[in-house]
Amino acid sequence: MKILAFYNIKGGVGKTASCVNLAYLAAAERAPTLLCDLDPQGSASYYFRISASPKFDSRKFLKGGRKIAKNIKGTDFEHLDLLPSDLSFRHLDILLDDRKRSRRRLGELLRPLADQYRYIFLDCPPNITLMSENVFLAADCIFVPVIPTVLSVRTLEQLQVFFREGGYDHRRLWAFFPMVEKRKGMHRHFLADPELTMPRRLQTAIPYLSEIEKMGFYRQPLTHHRPASPGSAAYRALWGEMQAVMDGLPAS
Amino acid sequence: METAIYALPDRFDFDGLKEGLQAAFHLAEERRRAFSLEVFDTFDWRLYARGQLLVREGAVLKVLEAPSDREVIRAAISPRQRPRFWWDLPESPLRQVLREVLDVRALRLLARLRQGVRTLDLRNAEEKTVARVVWEAVARAGKHASREPLAQVCKLVPVRGYRQEWAAAARALASCGIDRQTGGPIVLALKASGHRPGGYAPKADIPLWPEMPAGAAARAILAHLGQVMGANEDGIRRDIDTEFLHDFRVAVRRARSLLSLLPGVFDPQGRHALKAGLQAAGRVTTGLRDLDVYLLQQPRYEALLPDRLRPAIAPLFASLKRRRGRERRKTLAFLDAGAYRELRGHLNEGTSAVADLERLAPDPARGPIKPLADRVIFKHYRKIIKAGRRIGGSTPDSDLHRLRIECKKLRYAIEFFATLYPAAEIQDLIKQLKSLQDNLGRFNDLAVQQEFLHTFLARLDGRTPGAIGLAAAIGALIGRLHREHDRVREAFREVFAAFQAPDNHLRYVRLFAAPGEPA
Fold it and tell me: Domain of B147?
């Protein structure tokens, strides 16, 4: 099992769209895949038309085991399941803080799912919190979508500093460019700069496309709904790169 | 939550079903697809016995889980290749699975089918799919293609996390008057086209009861063994794999064993004729079986040899293959001969040897089978204990060989009469006995193989090209086998100690010893 986190301190950077489209591609290759929606906004759950059962909340989530297994739902697509988020997930940090080994809890919660899933995708909430630190420890790879702008690149630098100071494994950190608009000079500038304080960067850029934004309308992964579109092609190329990254990791 | 399967009547109104479901769900547009498939299994239904099916759909070979037909694993296969042995398939995880399951057995093409699938997604108010209704019809394809389905079923497939919705759909289906059933459409189609999945069971328990007259019991056992022999004839003739002849010979051996275990229940003349027929069946086929065993050893022998000697062994197997052709002709001629037909007749219908045993045969045939079975099993058990205890470091190999034969007799006896005793106890007994037999069997195989290689070496003409390399390779093999032989012999002590351990011994006493009989 490999755990892939999609994370950025900043919101609105195409994190959920990437997570949903890539998780669909993983499942389309017949790999049993689970998408965990950790964001209290529940956008990933919304894309799949799934809402958590009224009895499911952040406390149940942190209990783990059967509480989690019972609340996993099948999406409309074979091999792809989803653990929906709940608005109460906004309290995850407070609840985590009360526990022992509070930075390791997420990893412990996901471990029992190893025999069911080849990939677990984590759609993470923005901000650096105790929950994010759980993600940094649990995930095999942390994929950071970075819009090629000054502010966005700056948040990546902040994250790298945080990793260094917190003693997290910075080799797990991978950046990629979503929402790229080639007509913008600044985007071209950042794309062309190979140094860019980003030692681990995936080469595929996801273009800014209205068809990706429209996913909220038709509530399906673009990679399923419009497999021939340029956006889908870009996600497929990106998924290929991510698989190569994970193939290079030691087996777990 | 599992896929529920419903039997459908011949003329089923799918649209009527849709109406019933419409009350509770939004129905998506129906999706239809149809495809051809081929179904495979071994003669002894190894995949079916594991609750699985092996099908080929074009260039894809896949294992399905029965009865949901959910895919377990798949691999690409050349569309022209007919899958037969696991080792013919390209490297893949599926090949590994088949390696475990099939071992040396060949796959047989059971049926060419055409499957039509109509899928209806049931959705909730959010337009999220919460369950699926799948209608599947399977018809004959290929030479005898027909539109008339061999089987059709309706499946209600759950989506994880939507239990209540699934239950609501199940209620809607039930109100259409269709009933749940256990088989998937492919297995149903196999049955409808005349197959009997799981039907071949050479070691099936023969139903006996304690008061059953011994003669009738013997007749039931022999009839079963005759059927096993008959079931394997076709596979031997068509040379499908080596196990047909093997099973055939085991049945012959078991029948001979029965004659010697229960001598008193047969009339002497009939018993003599049967024995002669069975002996011939064993003798004629031994050469072919031995060659099969050596040829199956080829990969192992090659692995035992150092790299540089490996190619040199090839002429050995080439020569064995030529000899195998000759032996095969002998076996086939035997199967076609009148003597064999007569033997089969004796076993199946019974002649003077087995028919009317209760009436014609000597007294013991009329007595109940149970005390006889007790006595036979306990006698052979004690023989084994006595002989086994005498075996030490300097005992000749031939004594171990004799002990192996004794163990076989005991094993057959326990299996023949298994239904007279508690099943769990019999299982444990066989498990203990089997580990002893495995040790002795391995010991014997290694002795026979060395002997065979020595003989081959002695007859080798040193002037033929490659002879020197071949001799070197055979020498190296003999060395390896010899070392292994010693190791197996050393292990005997421990294996035998486990066999005669107090709890195993007490079990034999409890189950088989007559009251007051010395243990």
Answer: 4-192
Q: Is A49 on the interface with B (CB under 8 A)?
A: yes
pLDDT confidence of residue B350:
55
Q: Is B161 in contact with A76 (Cβ distance < 8 A)?
A: no
Nearest CA in chain A to B70: A78
Interatomic CA distance for residues A100 and A86, integer angstroms: 23
pLDDT digits (tens, 9 = 90+) for A147-190: 988 888 888 889 999 999 999 998 899 999 999 998 998 888 88
Residue type, A120: I
Which of B366, B397, B426 finishes a domain?
B366
CB B222 within 8 A of CB B258: yes
B316: domain CATH number?
Answer: 1.40.20.10
| Complete DSSP assignment for B68-114 | TTEEEEEEE--TT----SGGGSPSSHHHHHHHHHHTTPPPEEEEEEE
pLDDT tens digits along B334-347:
999 999 998 998 88
Q: In this structure, are B116 and B165 located in the same domain? A: yes
Q: Are residues B385 and B331 in the same domain?
A: no
> What is the fold of A2-247?
Rossmann fold (3.40.50)
Which residues in A lie closer than 8 A to residue B127 (C-beta atoms)? 49, 219
**Same-domain pairing of B187 and B45:** yes
Interface pTM (ipTM) of the complex?
A: 0.85
Torsions phi, psi of B175, nearest 5? -75, -10
- Higher-confidence residue of B206 and A199: namely B206
Two tokens, residue B214: 């011994």
